[in-house]
Design brief:
Structural class: alpha+beta
Largest sheet: 5 strands, antiparallel
Shape: globular
Number of strands: 11
Helix content: 25-40%
Strand content: 15-25%
Number of helices: 7
Length: about 280
């Protein structure tokens, strides 16, 4: 038993080391690296307007192995449906089903299914707007908003490490925003009323570090299809200019036919990143 535990910890260490190496390279270049290509999460043949044709797996035997969360009866079944797919399907197929998540995160977070399944065996704990399962190796967190859909794709972190959303999440937020603007959301249900990507009215930011926050105007209306005609997915990049803000830049062709580079300023919240300003 001890030899098995030692081998498992060695496997986790190797997995996390590989994730950190890839993450460090992308952080330096502000890239998404599903296939090692700077600035892209997707293959060239991806149809971003396509619907998922097959249904998620029913709650299989694994459902009994997902610990219940007191006060959140829907949490275990929603995560169990995802866990069944984690065990029975490939990561590329999970990327289609977990369309709210950045594809590089799916490749890194879901790389060791059994470690995650082991963590889900413990009781779930509800806190704020998420439910968390944890063991000594990993922490698995599912958002209440995703649980409510009946199929929840969680974030997975090394236990004891920092929990939160990363630069790939920010870039994917902008990708979804632009896809909506083109009238081709990544999924038919990806609407602003169901999945807000824009910071709430009155949200303030201080991009210049002056200590005098201003209300952020939005240059693009995310609910109005046609505002953006095309964008260059392979060139979506991000950087951290100051504090908790992150900026994401992407070349676009506007509905009027103008080619420009738009720069989005985002801030992390309890459910992910929201867009507070668009320029360009």
């Amino acid at each position: 038993m001890e030899n098995g535990r030692t081998a498992l910890r060695a496997q986790i260490h190797q997995w996390l080391l590989g994730t950190l190496i890839v993450g460090a390279a992308c952080l330096a270049g502000g890239c998404d690296s599903k296939a090692g290509i700077e600035g892209t999460d997707f293959g060239a043949d991806l149809d971003m307007s396509s619907e998922i044709s097959s249904s998620p797996s029913p709650v299989a035997a694994v459902s009994s192995g997902v610990g219940a969360a007191p006060g959140k009866p829907n949490a275990a079944p929603a995560v169990a449906r995802w866990a069944a797919d984690l065990q029975g399907r490939g990561l590329d197929e999970l990327a289609d089903r977990c369309w709210t998540m950045a594809p590089p995160n799916i490749q890194s977070m879901y790389a060791e299914p059994q470690i995650i399944i082991d963590a889900l065996a413990g009781p779930g704990v509800s806190s704020g707007q998420a439910v968390t399962w944890q063991n000594a190796e990993v922490t698995v967190t599912a958002q209440d908003r995703d649980i409510a859909t009946g199929y929840a794709c969680p974030h997975v972190y090394p236990t004891g490490g920092e929990l939160g959303f990363n630069d790939a999440d920010a870039r994917h937020t902008v990708r979804r925003f632009l896809s909506r603007s083109m009238g081709r959301p990544l999924h038919p249900t990806d609407r602003e009323d169901a999945y807000p990507l824009v910071c709430a009215a009155g949200w303030t930011w201080d991009p210049d570090g002056t200590g005098k926050p201003a209300t952020a105007p939005l240059a693009v209306n995310p609910s109005k299809p046609g505002a953006v005609r095309t964008f260059v997915d392979q060139s979506i990049k991000s950087e951290w200019p100051r504090g908790g803000y992150i900026t994401v830049s992407v070349p676009v062709t506007t509905g009027a036919g103008d080619q420009t580079k738009q720069i989005y300023t985002l801030k992390s919240g309890s459910e992910g990143y929201c867009i507070g300003d668009v320029s360009g």
